[in-house]
C-alpha cells in the first residue's frame, strides 16, 4: 500500500466551494474534509485571526470519544502552537465544559472536537469566543477567509520562533463540575431519587454519574464507557427506546439521555414518556417565573417549538420569541432581549443564570432539583403543564448538493407549502428547511389534529422526493 506524504496531502486536498462553517461549526465525515492536514491549517488560520482580534491567552481544547477526535485535536493544537498560541488540552469532556472554562480563564477562545448527536463516522470542530459563547459570524468568516487564502501553501522555513505550548490540563474539568453543583440551591440533595442516565458512549460517561451520586441519587448508567465505535448508535438523546425501557424496568423516578458531547438533553418520566426541550423550558421557566427570576416572563425558542407549548406559556402571562434552528441563534436572541432562559425542542437548553452555553448535565441537575423542590413526580408536573399539538418531522436525505442548496427555488414544493399554510391557518404550522449539519431536507407539520398533520406531511414529503431526489 502506497501512502501519500503529509505535505502532498495538504497541497492536493481541495476545499469545498460552499461555506465551511454551518450552524454549529465545521462538520462532516472524518477523513473527507476533516483530515489532519485540514485541521492543522485550520489551527494555523484560527490562531492568526484570534490573535489579531483579542488579547493573547490560551485556547481551551476539548473533544468527545470519537475515534477521529484524537487525530483532529492533535492536528489543530499543532497549528495553534505553530503560530504562538498556548493550548490547554482537556481531553474528553462535554462541550459546555469547554465553554465554561473558556469564560472563567479569560481564554483567547475555545475549541471542541465533536459532531454532537451525529453518528461515529462524523466529526466536527466547534469554536467559542472569549466569553464562552459560540463564535460570531464575522469571526468565523475571518477564519475561513484566512484558511482559504493560505490553504495548500508550503512553509518550509519557520516564520518566527515564538512557539506556543500544548498543556494537558484535564484536572480543570473539576472546576466545571464544582460550578454545576454550586449552581443548585444550597443544602439540596437527591437522596431517595432513582435516576437512569444514558451517556451515549460519549463525553459525559464519567462526569454525569459522578455528580448525581455525589448529590445522593441512586444511579443506573447506560452506555457508560467512552467508545468511538458506538457513540450515539441507537442510544442517547436521539434514540430513547433503551432509556424508556430501563426507567420502567428499574421503576426509576426519571431518566436522562445525553448526546455525544453532552450539550443537549432529553428526559423520560416514570411512565416512559418523552420530555423534550419544550416541556423542560415550560417547567423550568414556570419555576423561575414563580421565583421572580424571569425578566418579562420571556422565553426564547426556535421555529420548531410546539404550538401547544407556546399557547400554554402565553396563558401564564409569558411570551415566546422564536429563532432559526440552532442554539447559537437562541443564544444571540437571549443576549439581545435580556432573556435568561431559552432552548430548542431537541434538548439544547441555555440558562444564563448559571452558564453561557447549552448544557445537558446542568439541565438534568436543575430539572431533578425542580422535582425535589416541588415534592411531586416529573409525571405529575408534566400532566399539569400542557398538551402538545400533533407534530411530525420527516428527514429526507439528498445526495445532490446543488439541489440541496437550491431547494427554495423548487416551485412545486413552494406551492404545496403555501397551500398547507393556508389550510392550517392559526391552528397549525409548516416548516420546511435544509439541515445546517447534515445533507437533509427537514419537513415539519404541526396541526390541531393528527389527520391534518399526517396529510400535509405526506404531501410535502412527496413533493421533496419527486422534485429534489428523482
pLDDT below 50 for ≥5 consecutive residues: which ranges? Answer: 1-11
Helix fraction?
A: 25-40%
Helices, by number, come to 16
Assembly state: single chain
Any idea what the CATH architecture of the largest domain is? 3-Layer(aba) Sandwich
Q: How would a textbook summarize the main sheet?
A: 6 strands, mixed
Structural class estimated from helices and strands: alpha/beta
Outline of the structure:
The chain is of the alpha/beta class. It has 16 helices and 18 strands. The chain folds into three domains: 6-173, Alpha-D-Glucose-1,6-Bisphosphate, subunit A, domain 3 (Alpha-D-Glucose-1,6-Bisphosphate, Chain A, domain 3, 3-Layer(aba) Sandwich); 194-383, 3-Layer(aba) Sandwich (Alpha-D-Glucose-1,6-Bisphosphate, Chain A, domain 3); 391-469, Alpha-D-phosphohexomutase, C-terminal domain (TATA-Binding Protein).
